[in-house]
């Protein structure tokens, strides 16, 4: 059985015309790091607050390690859930020293001095017990916040936008530290973020939420390469979208007939997606698709090239080693297995 089980979770805030979270299901296995991704207002933080017990759901249930935390008859308060929370702003007490901050949530049943020492060793801050938060860097403050959340040995750790207050240089380092800390502590964690780069690098699985509805869940590779719908496809960055009609041999599109299997009922209109890094430039006139370069943006290791193919425009990633100029004719060969037939996005309910 999964460590965390969320079933049909709904939340409507007072006076809101829509549900902030609608029929949300989630299962988290012991030791997993799950990322909840979505744009601002998507419902991901609402889901986190419901799991933590800071909000009561309008419907649905949450169970942790076989114990019901909330349903139509039960509501366990936050302090009794065995859930740790690291807030976006860290919420460290500025008048307390590091050791006192870490020990703040520990009950009398804990050996406070030993627990603080173990947690500071876990986050590589041994010797910082007597320092104040303002004497630490942003990354060190974050590690203190993680240590405080982990000190009571929670069954589940919740991380609310843990990288949002860091500069770009620090984000990758701290992301890797969080992964290492949670792995060493053998802690199951849910990480809320809208930063797609770090979600992809830091999570075992990703759950994408939009308008209060779960759109897709899977490994980073699965969700990136096989998006379920338009929202998921666009959430992971630039992607090529086009409409097509299902015919006997595949899908007829503005860039030609694509031999896509299991694309739907013949005669229906479908939306197709393919990512820029799945369109390859080939030499000569051997590519099945050709077009004229309309724009070139240098991105370091590659150039983002916009190619006009008839009335359609395709974004293609081309190695910076290959010189491409506006007006050039390019021949393209897509990876056929990379074309994805998208389903409609899940929509929130009004009732």
List the defining traits of the structure above.
351 residues, alpha+beta, Rossmann fold, OB fold (Dihydrolipoamide Acetyltransferase, E2P), 2 domains, six-stranded mixed β-sheet, five-stranded antiparallel β-sheet, 20 strands, 21% helix, globular
Give the helices and strands, then pairings.
Layout: E1 4-11, E2 21-28, E3 33-37, H1 44-52, E4 59-64, E5 67-70, E6 83-86, H2 98-103, H3 112-122, H4 138-150, E7 156-160, H5 168-184, E8 188-193, H6 196-202, E9 205-210, E10 213-218, H7 220-225, H8 230-235, E11 240-247, E12 250-253, E13 256-258, E14 269-274, E15 279-282, E16 289-298, E17 302-309, E18 312-319, E19 329-334, E20 340-342
Parallel strand pairs: 3-8, 3-9, 6-7, 7-8
Antiparallel strand pairs: 1-2, 1-4, 4-5, 9-10, 11-12, 11-14, 12-13, 14-20, 15-19, 16-17, 16-19, 17-18
Helix pairs in contact: 3-4
Q: Which fold name corresponds to the CATH topology of the largest domain?
A: Rossmann fold
Strand content bin: 25-35%
Helix fraction bin: 10-25%
- Please count the helical segments: 8
**Approximate shape:** globular
Q: Strand sequence of the main sheet, in spatial order?
A: 6-7-8-3-9-10
CATH superfamily of the largest domain: P-loop containing nucleotide triphosphate hydrolases
Low-confidence stretches: none
Please tell me the overall pLDDT.
Answer: 90
- Supply the helix-strand structural class: alpha+beta
């Amino acid at each position: 059985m999964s460590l965390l089980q969320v079933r049909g979770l709904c939340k409507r805030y007072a006076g809101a015309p829509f549900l902030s979270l609608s029929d949300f299901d989630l299962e988290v296995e012991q030791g997993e790091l799950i990322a909840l991704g979505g744009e601002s207002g998507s419902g991901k933080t609402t889901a986190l607050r419901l799991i933590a017990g800071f909000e009561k759901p309008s419907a649905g249930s949450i169970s942790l390690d076989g114990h019901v935390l909330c349903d139509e008859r039960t509501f366990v308060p936050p302090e009794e859930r065995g859930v740790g929370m690291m807030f976006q702003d860290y919420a460290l007490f500025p008048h307390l020293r590091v050791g006192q901050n870490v020990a703040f949530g520990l009950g009398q049943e804990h050996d406070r001095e030993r627990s603080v020492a173990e947690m500071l060793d876990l986050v590589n801050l041994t010797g910082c017990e007597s320092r104040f938060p303002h004497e630490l860097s942003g990354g060190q403050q974050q590690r203190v916040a993680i240590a405080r959340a982990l000190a009571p040995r929670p069954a589940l750790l919740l991380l609310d936008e843990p990288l949002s207050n860091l500069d770009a240089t620090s984000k990758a380092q701290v992301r890797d530290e969080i992964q290492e800390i949670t792995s060493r502590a053998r802690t199951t964690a849910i990480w809320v973020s809208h930063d797609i780069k770090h979600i992809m690098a830091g999570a075992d699985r990703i759950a994408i939420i939009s308008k209060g509805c779960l759109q897709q869940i899977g490994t980073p590779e699965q969700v990136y390469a096989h998006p379920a719908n338009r929202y998921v496809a666009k959430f992971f960055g630039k992607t090529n979208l086009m409409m097509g009609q299902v015919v006997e041999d595949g899908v007829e599109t503005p860039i030609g007939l694509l031999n896509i299997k299991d694309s739907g009922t013949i005669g229906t209109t479908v939306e197709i997606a393919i990512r820029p890094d799945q369109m390859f430039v080939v030499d000569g006139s051997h590519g099945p698709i050709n077009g004229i370069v309309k724009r070139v943006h240098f991105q370091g290791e590659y150039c983002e090239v916009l190619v006009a193919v008839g009335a359609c425009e395709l974004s293609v990633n081309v190695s910076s080693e290959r010189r491409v100029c506006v007006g050039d004719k390019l021949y393209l060969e897509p990876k056929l297995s990379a074309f994805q037939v998208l389903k409609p996005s899940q929509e929130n309910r009004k009732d």
